[in-house]
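Handout, section B. The chain below has 525 residues.
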Amino acid sequence: MRRFFPALVLIALFLSFANAKAQERPSFIEGGVLRICTNPTLPPMTFVNGADLSALDGFDIALARALGAYWRVPVKFETMDFTGLFPSLSAGRCGLVISGVLKQASRERLFDAVSYLETSPVIVAPARIAPVTSFEALAGQSLAVESGTSYAARIEDINRDLTAQGKPPIVLQQYPSEDQVVQQVLVGRVQNFLSQDVELFYREAQLGGKLHVIYSPKLPGYTEFALYLRRAGSDRALLASALDALRQKGEITALEKKWNVGIAARKALGVAVERPRFNTTTFFSALFSMAFLKGAGMTLAIALASHAAAIVLSIPIALKLNAPRSLWHPFLRAYVAIFRGAPTLLQLLFIWNALPQFFPIFRESWFSPFLATWICLSINESAYQVEINRAALSAIDPGQLAGGQALGMSQAQIYRHVIFPQALRVALPPTINEFISLLKTTSLASVISLQELLFITQVQVARSFEFTEYYAAALVYYLAMVFAFLHLQKRIETRFVWASRDGAGRKSDKNTPTMPQAGGPRHAA
């Protein structure tokens, strides 16, 4: 036995080394965590399964967790809009993109890709429409696709061929998410939509037999889903090796059966049933759910925080612009012009996706969607608030300043006790109006996955396809918040502006004379 002992030790060491080599961790696992970028609006690949936004589910989510288990590291998911997946990957916000993304040469010019699942494109139309055998049969018809995908470019190529044949092109319409694409056909706004077969299999029970596949085109580049990663050494080989190991263990096959995807998945899940036009149970469940309440709270919190910061930023700028012209004026005017002129959504995407490209510190976990939204809306809103404050300060008679100086008051005392109180009455109504507008603008933050009210609504719609019910619940929350601030605005105006004309005027008649105010009644200075 002793003669064989050294050989056994060598064999054990070799197997241990081989196993360690097979599970060598790629460099995109940073800090001992596998970070995944995904867009949770494509069942059954990736979606939110329930009211809890952290309850990510689907084939891709399970595959990501299997990879984490293979490399013995925890998995963290970064949810975002589809168009933000590759910018976030490039910025280093995650190591892999796993989100039902097709393997295509155009994307592989910038990123490495490893295939993991076969799929097929499908043209879907209402059940009453007969199947077709080519894209030529769709000439002149409307077709919906998800924006940010490569479908649009492919349809444009097909349209060039149709035009060359003297036929009308396909009318292309793009929508920000897959669920909205399907909804356009359901409501009759669009005649067809282009997607992948996996979603239709999952949606069949939800759609109640209203839609079916009329054409399965053979399109190169639309037959495989892939995991995407940044190009770095042997990372692609390590990822491919991990997927092969999971496939040999039967884990990927088990996931295909569970989620009804892959080349064998040609039967829809569930039973087709007719659904009610408006499900009151779903509506009230959403209306009183903790998820919607938290979403509304997040919307209100980011609006209040952004507007408060905007006011703080705008006051010194407004004072400087109202002062005699100096070297600061061109820069401050440029600041106001740029942030008023650029679309808010563009500013938000620049801060979230572009800043990490220039400054790696913004790739860290501390730079959250909330912080990015707060920075963007604060700067953007301050540009508008500058004009409100500047106009309010300009409305005050310069004699007020001279009168304060004659009384021996310092500059700070004059502004604190004379100028600002009067300017406040002028600025208050437009400031509250601007805040109400900002409250609705916060919905733009859903594109970077800030879990505000609209984001909560979209993930629930993507999961259940109950558009009307969830949108109605979100509408109730938005209207409740807006009406509350409209009521507050009315009370404040009554207290500090309009009521003061009569009330303060009568009091001043009985007491002391007042200093005149420009454009309004007399008030005590």
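Note. DSSP finds 18 helices and 13 strands in the chain. Compare this with the example in section A.
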